[in-house]
Amino acid sequence: MQGPFTLPEVTLSDTVFALCGSAVVVYLIFKRYEPINFFVHLPLLTIPPTLALPLLLQLLAPLQAVFISFSVYYATIVLSVVLYRLSPFHPLAQYPGPFLLKVSKCVMGWFAFQGRTHTYVHELHQLYGDIVRIGPNEVSIRDTTAIIPLMGSLGLPRGSNWRARGMYPSIPSLVSITNHAEHAERRKPWNRAFNSAALKGYEDIIARRATQLVENIARRGKVDLGTWFSWFSFDFMSDMAFGGGSEMMRDGDNASIWSQLESALKWAALLGHIPWLGAYARSVPGIGEGLKRIDAFGTQRATLRVKNGSLSRDLFHHLNGEDGKAGTQPPLELVVADGTLAVIAGSDTTTGVLTNLFFCLLRHPESYVRLQAEVDKFCPLGENALNTKHLGDMVYLNAVLNEALRLYPAGPSGSQRTTGKGHGGKFVGPYYLPEETNASIHTWSVHRDARNFSMPDKFWPERWLIAEDLVLQAQTPGLGLTRRHTTTASGRLWFARRGSCRCWWSVDLASECSGHVWFSSQISSDLGVRYLIMLASRIPPSWWNEAWL
After folding, report:
1. What is the pLDDT of residue 540?
2. Looking at the structure, do residues 188 and 82 belong to the same domain, yes or no?
3. What is the pTM of this model?
4. 137, 399, 500, 549: which could join 464 in a potential S-S bond, CB 3.0 to 4.6 Å?
């Protein structure tokens, strides 16, 4: 006879069946709601197998009961995930891709952390075609007809990976906003900060920093140009965003800011592919430390900038509503988020543009000589090397920049977009993207596709100058969006033109680099290997400042 608190007699198969059923229910909860909160994860992953333990303890030894309960429960969840994602019933089942990528994004996270996403996905496109499934709910597209529907003004909003990259901050930065209307509103001060009048106001800053760069590298017979461009870009962006706070060209990376930035970019790349990990990263020591320190740097600089007031019309001047055009002053936390974004995105991508540009020219001396002649023509020694009236006429400079950006784009793996939840699917070009599907245009592959560019793997600046029948990209609708879909893109090109022009005007360069160069897209925007540059001054040091001003 059973007492009132006596557990019913059950068989092992009954208990296992109940565990499997509860695991399937929990899997459906995860699939439907995709919770990222630890306090939701914990009960869903522990309560059902814990409740099954008293039943199993009637049949098994304690250790066996614990092992059976939790292993059966977790194995059922994993099996449910794998079977659904590989099944013909999955919304993306029609699109090809590697087995492991259909099951999990962890593989993509590994390649991202190593900085090899762009080359890996490029290989997948060569193997599978213009659309590849690179995640359970994500595709990469190489077809140019999909660019405008996906990336244009009426395209899809940004994907969830952008917030995960920042470890789900309480106030997202501009690039993390998925709502079109909110994004347009937040973008207004950025538009004012990067219009032609505002850019002209930054010329004194870049003049001072570019002169400092040239003076430093000209004192040395050999330099690591990638490192110096990193310091130059970070110093300039700190001046432009917060009115100062960085002196790497003077002191080196003594505070380890740049190394922290590189660490931050590694973790951001990884977390973008494994969003749930981003929810834990902010609370777990050792994960995303670079991101946390860069956030602290931005907060410190913004606080000092508010305390000291405005010394110039810098980016903070516009973001903080000091220009009087915002109506109401935004919260400091919002300004910190966007100001820090400007320093990180601006310094990293600009470093990449400059380093890749000089690398291409040093590997192709004939292009270097032609560009040097153009710079000398429009900026003779003793004159202002960055007089803006000349830049529009320097067609070869623009061609070289376009070609360097084609071969080594600032965002080679594209920018994730999503169809979102509750809005249905959408056609992008000939491809139907179901609801809750993430997608991106793989810029690296588009730019190296013979259907878009003749001799796509060759550095050939003349393609931007010669007859239109040889420059397919000029006739390809929307191709420019793969490089110019951000507000700061015009600022990056503006910076690159002036900084590079100043270097060519001041020094002669020659590379000691030979052999294969590994290009890192996600970890850092420079070329990944350190190579030495031989320098020979073209003008007496006493001319630098007076010729610049």
Report:
1. 41
2. no
3. 0.86
4. 399
The domain in which residue 527 lies consists of 173-262+292-548
Looking at the structure of the chain, the number of domains it has is 2
Burial of 114 (0-12, 13-18, 19+ CB in 10 A): middle
Instruction: Flag whether 123 is in a domain.
Output: no
Query: Can you tell me the distance from the alpha carbon of 178 to that of 417, in angstroms, rounded to the nearest whole number?
Result: 9
- Domain for residue 280, yes or no? no
**Residue 102 contacts by C-beta under 8 Å, 6 or more apart in sequence?**
85, 86, 90, 92, 133, 135, 136
Tokens of 202: 């930054």
In total, the chain counts a number of residues equal to: 549
Q: Same structural domain for residues 179 and 76?
A: no
Domain boundary among 22, 56, 86: 86
Query: Which position has the token pair 């209307």?
Result: 181
Rg (C-alpha) for the chain, rounded Å, is: 27
CATH number of the domain that 433 lies in? 1.10.630.10
Mean pLDDT of the chain: 81
Residues in Cβ contact with 283 at an 8 Å cutoff, skipping those fewer than 6 apart: 38
Quote the CA–CA distance of 87 and 479 in Å, as a whole number: 35
Could you write out the DSSP letters of every residue in 476-527?
Answer: STTGGGGT--STTHHHHHHHHHHHHHHHHHHEEEEE---S-----SSS-SS-
Q: 285 lies in a domain?
A: no
Coil vs helix vs strand at 223: strand
d(CA 533, CA 11): 75
The confidence band for 296, taking pLDDT boundaries of 50, 70 and 90, is confident
Residues 189 and 47 in one domain: no
Sign of CA dihedral 220, 205, 401, 389: negative
CA distances from 538 to 208, 305, 495 (A): 19, 38, 22
Task: State the residue for tokens 């306090």.
Answer: 39
- Domain contains 113: no
Residues 6+ apart with CB under 8 A from 507: 214, 217, 218, 535, 536, 537, 538
Amino acid at 227: T
Give me the mean pLDDT over the 424-446 stretch: 95
* Residue-level pLDDT at 485: 47
